[in-house]
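Q&A log
Question type: sequence-to-structure
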Amino acid sequence: MRRSSCWATTSADAMPLGVLLMIVSCVILGTLFGWLRIRSGNIWPSVFGHAALNGTAGFLGLVVAAGESPSVLATSPLGWIGWTLVALVVVVLALAGQFRGKDQWAVNVAKAPAVGPSPFQP
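Response status: OK
Response body:
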């Protein structure tokens, strides 16, 4: 069997690696998208960020269509390059004190418009 440019040699070998890539990416990106939602007080920055992520995922398809055989670990937004860039942004935000305590949550929740009567109120 020919070894691919990825670490795994078969689809059965690639499954645990794919699951690991997805879990780490979801944690890092979820942190960033959650911060965008809380900081802006609006869902749309997170929506556009997620759309941009989905758009970059198509880049790998273009490279493969051009006849190249790239490493998914390097060229995918779920790979180590994507992790590094987004993790760097999260670290900078954390060092800048952007992930402060619950007071920040309370301020943004208080600004949110009421949609209707709460089912939890008597």
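Response note: The helical segments are 11-40, 44-65, 72-75, 80-95, 102-111.
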